[in-house]
């Protein structure tokens, strides 16, 4: 029996366990199981890694960056991004970190892109936002990070977001947890009145299906995308990595 699982904190709500359990059942994959490893601190991760029956893991908030020192190797994309959301135990027993968020984001965003979509705002600066930035670079789309507390002079704060900023950046991606269940009335503090039908609002959150952030976009006839397709694409990419020898 091959064991797979998800490492994170407060992850009882998680997409991954349900997704893979249903996948194993529907595709008659009888030699695999998937479970959550909910750990309070990253220092507890060696207890998970110590189980050698585990051959593949997903990683979620808040450990996508802090898990890196506990791994033996990084795939080149994960190294460039600086964040890991997939781990594979290779034939040598080494733990190798990958990033499949970038794949999932690109595959879910590309069908909606038009030539006018040249500039983006990335809300939040955590591990997920790094994969988003990497993908936008690959797509030739420039971006600016927006943070409550700017980490450097290139970052914008929410107070910096004026009409001109919103008009120039026709893609806005929410990488913060604002609006996720159960706090579904929360939303990033944006001047939503300046949105147009040319904007794309992308929320990495998938629960609820339409966040308050996306509702603001719907009212302005923007293109709205939630995080579910990205999650499905990145999960399938992880499955392929785990099954490639």
What portion of residues is helical?
25-40%
Q: Unreliable stretches, pLDDT < 50, 5 or more residues?
A: none
Overall, the morphology is globular
CATH architectural label of the largest domain: 3-Layer(aba) Sandwich
Any idea of the CATH class of the largest domain? Alpha Beta
| Percentage of residues in DSSP E strands | 15-25%
Description of the molecule:
The protein is built from eight helices and eleven strands. By secondary structure, it is α/β, with parallel strands linked by helices. The protein has two domains: 98 residues, 3-Layer(aba) Sandwich (Rossmann fold); 128 residues, Rossmann fold. The strands form two sheets. The chain has a six-stranded mixed sheet with strand order 2-1-3-5-6-4. Strands 8-7-9-10-11 form a five-stranded parallel sheet, with helices on both faces. The mean pLDDT is 96.
Topology:
Layout: E1 2-8, H1 15-26, E2 32-38, H2 45-49, E3 54-59, E4 73-74, H3 76-81, E5 86-89, E6 95-98, H4 101-109, E7 119-123, H5 127-139, E8 142-146, H6 163-168, E9 171-174, E10 200-203, H7 212-219, E11 223-225, H8 228-242
Parallel strand pairs: 1-2, 1-3, 4-6, 7-8, 7-9, 9-10, 10-11
Antiparallel strand pairs: 3-5, 5-6
What's the short story on this structure?
The protein is an alpha/beta fold.
Provide keyphrases for this structure.
6-stranded mixed β-sheet, 5-stranded parallel β-sheet, alpha/beta, globular, Rossmann fold, 245 residues, 30% helix, 8 helices
């Amino acid at each position: 029996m091959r064991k797979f699982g998800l490492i994170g904190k407060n992850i009882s709500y998680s997409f991954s366990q349900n997704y893979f359990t249903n996948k194993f059942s529907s595709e008659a994959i009888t030699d695999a199981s998937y479970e959550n490893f909910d750990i309070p601190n990253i220092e507890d991760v060696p207890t998970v890694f110590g189980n050698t029956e585990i051959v593949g893991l997903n990683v979620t908030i808040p450990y996508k960056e802090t898990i890196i020192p506990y791994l033996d190797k990084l795939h080149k994309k994960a190294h460039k991004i600086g964040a890991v959301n997939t781990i594979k135990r290779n034939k040598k027993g080494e733990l190798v970190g990958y990033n499949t968020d970038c794949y999932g984001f690109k595959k879910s965003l590309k069908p909606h892109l038009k030539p006018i979509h040249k500039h983006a705002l990335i809300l939040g600066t955590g591990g997920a936002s790094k994969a988003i930035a990497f993908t936008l670079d690959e797509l030739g789309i420039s971006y600016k990070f927006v943070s409550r507390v700017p980490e450097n002079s290139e970052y914008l704060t929410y107070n910096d977001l004026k009409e001109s900023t919103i008009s120039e950046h026709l893609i806005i991606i929410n990488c913060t947890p604002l609006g996720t269940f159960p706090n579904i009335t929360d939303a990033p503090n944006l001047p939503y009145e300046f949105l147009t039908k040319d904007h794309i609002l992308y929320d990495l959150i998938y629960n609820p299906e339409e966040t308050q952030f996306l509702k603001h976009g719907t009212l302005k006839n923007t293109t709205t995308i939630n995080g579910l397709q990205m999650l499905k694409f990145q999960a399938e990419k992880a499955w392929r990595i785990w099954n490639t020898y």
